[in-house]
Structures are given as C-alpha cells and as structure tokens.
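Researcher: Let's do a round of design. I'm pasting the structure tokens now; please hold your answer until I've finished.
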C-alpha cells in the first residue's frame, strides 16, 4: 500500500475524534456503478426524469422501475475490504463518525453505523405521512409501491433540488468541527455541501488524509494523500487486516 506517515499512523492508533467521509469510489470497488462517466447510471437516462420531485410526480412508475433495477444490481454486490475495515475500526473506536454520500447501504451491511447524508435506496418514504421505513425486498412486488394510507411511496434518497437531511448533516458538520483526523475516501470532492466537511475540519486544525485512486480538487488541501483503492489502503492504514 501507499507509504503512511508516522503522524497519520499515530492519529489512527489514538482513534480520537476520527471522521471518515466516503463517496462513490469505495462502492465502485464492490461493483456498484457510479452515477456519471463510462457505464454510469446517468449515462442513458435523464437526471431530471429519474431523480427529481418533478420527474417523480410526472411518472412515478418509470422512476420506480429504474430504482428497482438499481436496487437489484446493488443487492448483488457485497461490502469490500474497505467497508469492512471501516466497520471494524468504528467498533474498536466508538467515537469514530462515518459519513457517506453513498445510498447503497454497503456500509451498514458491513456493520458500520453511518450517517447517510444522501439517503438510502433500501428505505422508502411516504410523502403524505412523512414516515420512513426500511424495505429490503428485491425485486419490489409492486411498482410503484404504495403506503397503507394509499399514497405512492418514494425512495428515501435526496434528489436534485432537495436539501440534505437536517439531522444527519448537522451531526456530520459537528463531527467535522471536532475532528482530530479526517479521512476522505473515494470521493471526487465536487458535490457540496458534503465537500465542505473536510474543508471545515481542516480549518479547525484536523489532520486531513485523502484516499483515492486519482487526484481530486481536495488533494492540494490534504496533509497526506494515499493513492490506491480503499479496499487495499484502508485495512493496512486502520490496522484491521481484511476481516
């Protein structure tokens, strides 16, 4: 794996106020396609049609057919060594905060307790009652799924034009302010407000380490950049091995 400084190793071993922010890169290593780019989910479909309140109101069946196919694809994927290392580290250091932009539930399946700031594909929400519940059925038996109250359920994910969940984002920002070590893993660092979290942490004096297969806009701000896949870098960095 990439060379790790003594400073970073010490902060990892201390395990005090550690925050990890993960993005699409760590899930791509499990076979989950990213949203953009070659073979991305958005390559052949319209964002406006599939991931906006207006598109859902216009054609909920089309939106749910697409999300059901995405749920099937992700359900066939498994957490990788990076997911498992983060889960094991969080178990050893309960004060660790894991924030993810991913909606695939792979962190939870690995055993983590993540703040899912973009929601989760395997939860549904009733727009009439405001109630959210887990739904792991694959495939869904009914498209679109309907709540007991008669309203059409929607995926519990953040769509374009919507605000991030206040509770989760508030907790993530507070953790960033307190962080001694902030790990940025497999994210392009382009999507705000999530991309502001490492900036907040760095501004408060946290040691900022980036793990990615390529350079990102955050690389110049980071105290340390470890180049490589999360599944290869994280087990050694966190001292976990591959559980």
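Researcher: That's everything. Go ahead.
Model: Designed sequence:
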């Amino acid at each position: 794996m990439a060379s790790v400084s003594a400073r970073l190793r010490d902060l990892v071993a201390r395990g005090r106020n550690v925050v990890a922010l993960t993005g699409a890169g760590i899930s791509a290593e499990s076979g989950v396609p990213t949203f953009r780019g070659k073979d991305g989910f958005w390559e052949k479909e319209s964002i406006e049609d599939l991931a906006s309140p207006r598109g859902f109101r216009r054609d909920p069946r089309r939106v749910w057919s697409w999300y059901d196919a995405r749920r099937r694809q992700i359900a066939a994927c498994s957490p990788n060594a990076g997911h498992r290392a983060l889960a094991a580290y969080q178990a050893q250091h309960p004060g660790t905060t894991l924030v993810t932009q991913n909606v695939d539930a792979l962190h939870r399946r690995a055993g983590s307790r993540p703040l899912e700031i973009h929601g989760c594909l395997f939860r549904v929400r009733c727009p009439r009652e405001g109630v959210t519940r887990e739904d792991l059925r694959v495939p869904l038996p009914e498209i679109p799924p309907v709540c007991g109250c008669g309203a059409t359920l929607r995926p519990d994910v953040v769509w374009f034009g919507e605000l991030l969940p206040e509770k989760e984002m508030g907790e993530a920002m507070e953790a960033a302010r307190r962080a001694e070590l902030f790990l940025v893993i497999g994210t392009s660092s382009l999507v705000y407000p999530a991309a502001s979290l490492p900036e907040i942490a760095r501004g408060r004096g946290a040691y900022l380490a980036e793990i990615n297969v390529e350079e990102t806009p955050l690389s110049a701000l980071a105290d340390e950049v470890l180049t490589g896949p999360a599944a290869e870098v994280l087990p050694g960095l966190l001292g976990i091995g591959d559980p």
